Prior knowledge:
Elements: H1 12-25, E1 41-42, E2 48-49, E3 67-70, E4 87-90, E5 103-107, E6 113-125, H2 134-141, E7 151-166, E8 169-173, E9 184-187, H3 191-197, E10 205-212, E11 215-216, E12 227-230, E13 245-248, H4 255-266, E14 273-274, E15 280-281, E16 284-289, H5 306-314, E17 325-330, E18 345-350, H6 370-388, H7 394-401, H8 404-413, H9 418-428, E19 440-441, H10 446-449, E20 455-459, H11 466-485, H12 492-495, E21 499-504, H13 516-535, E22 537-543, H14 551-554, E23 559-562, H15 568-573, H16 578-581, E24 591-595, E25 603-606
Parallel strand pairs: 13-22, 13-23, 16-20, 16-21, 17-18, 17-20, 18-19, 21-22
Antiparallel strand pairs: 1-2, 3-4, 3-9, 4-7, 5-6, 5-9, 6-7, 7-8, 10-11, 10-12, 10-25, 14-15, 23-24, 24-25
Amino acid sequence: MTDLGDFGDFNAESxxxxxxxxxxxxxxxxxxxxxxxxxxxxxxxxxTTDDFEPxxxxxxxxxxxxxxxxxxxxxxxxxxxxxxxxxxxxTRGNRSSIRIGSYLLAPYPDGETLFCRIIGxxxxxxxHADDATEIHARRAMRTDGxxxxxxxxxxxxxxxxxxxxxxxxxxxRMTDRVPKPQTVVRKADDTEQIKTGLKMPDDGVFLGHLSxxxxxxxxxxxxxxxxxxxxxxxxxxxxxxFRHTLIAGGTGSGKTHGAKNILRQYLAExxxxxxxxxxxxxxxxxxxxxxxxxxxxxxxxxxLDDEFGRRLExxxxxxxxxxxxxxxxxxxxxxxxAAGHHRARQVEFTIPFSMVYDNPxxxxxxxxxxxxxxxxxxxxxxxxxxxxxxxxxxxxxTTFLDDPALREELDESGRVHEATFDAVxxxxxxxxxxxxxxxxxxxxxxxxxxxxGGLTVVPTYHINDSRATEAIVLAVSSLIIxxxxxxxxxxxxxxxxxxxLGMDEAHNFLTDxxxxxxxxxxxxxxxxxxxxxxxxxxxxxxxxxxxxxHDAVFKQINTTVVLNLGDEDAIKSVNIPSNLESKVPYxxxxxxxxxxxxxxxxxxxxxxxxxxxxxxRD
Length: 618
């Protein structure tokens, strides 16, 4: 007995042939006769033939599409997506090319078209049989392929929109009708239909190319890819740059690469925004850079060849080093800045103590309670300013606090308790290497710092003190925000220039914290986010820990770009649809999900494989 039991020695085909030969070989009189055939026909010589007339099983004509709408398990479109039942049978020749997330078209008889997306794929039995058996499994293990004729392949569809023609213009509306049974479905391969179905704009700031499952969506057009852009004009609302952008991605996900490519588009020569006085002004980009990578945007990428450049030009993508790039290097103690990895111009600056008068939390360190912060703001700083004037320095302020007579006077008068005075003094110490260094004050450099069409990079990688880094970043960003939101600004250059304020590792500065000064920072950036549209101020935040950014700021973000994230809390915090959320941990470098409700449906993209400027250190 073999491993398949009694079937091992049995050959049904050979035994049947043998029996047929024996029966036909001998008639009743012992002579051989030809076998008869029920379907045989008489020939011209009176004999019979044993040929059957073939019956065609394939339909006539050429297939169009990939399958058809089926109703075996219902056909229903409802306002509640969970109650929608929309399925399509996919024919055998098309099954291997179908992916979850692919876009399909199902036409209506009157010329309208249902644009939908595959959200599920299923094999079902064509005929009822139990294939969970030893024989079926062993037979499958000994064959090279699968006979798909034995199975049905069904795609579950999610309606996205109905496409219709309006005086020659293709438009979309919500799904409000059900397709007919047996409607032929086909892949969406027309750029206009896909962009209309997904509500994607034709023009704007380039982010990447539309993809499904890590593969670019291809069309019959030239170029075959579909570019994804953010609205950047006032024809259909405010430019999305002023409604704020968040890029979230883990280490090695291509976060900085992608951020550089996006910022390069805002620095394009033809990009400008109208101001209240009627002028068209190019935006200024100010980028805080803790890893010292963005000053490289001054230089060309040597790996970007001519052929790739021509392709970028055809798609209207700005590329190449941006000549008007300046690294404004904060002077902190004896820390030195090395810039061998870029050729951008360098300008040193310092934070003058005079900025503390408007932003007292800059010198508060951390941990001040309400009483201590009130003493600093309402008593100590005003008295110091009255005594030393607007040009008072940080060194003079610490000397001022060392006066025991002042401490005793304020305690006896009941204005500041001696314990509160001592707590404030302890916490404002330690900033001697931050304020009033041997460099020009940032307040004297505003005209150079904010330049229409210019990129200003503030590197902090050379600063080893995180407390000093935080003070510098918040001082400079507050200067920009305060002047932008002011009705009577001191620096007209800031007020009259569109600004993109970029902040890498934003979670370090905009996190929730139980201190007064942290609350002040959050309030400042929240106001900036709320009024950014009106004042032409856009926040461009980059982080690997989006869950740490304060909700008040996060809620003002309109465009979220998510690259690979491995942390579950981080993925949950970015608030993207669940079908895309599940893909985030598995995305390769450069793959991204874009969630921008005012720009398009949530989509998956692939960024450019090469950085548009120099990137990475040799």
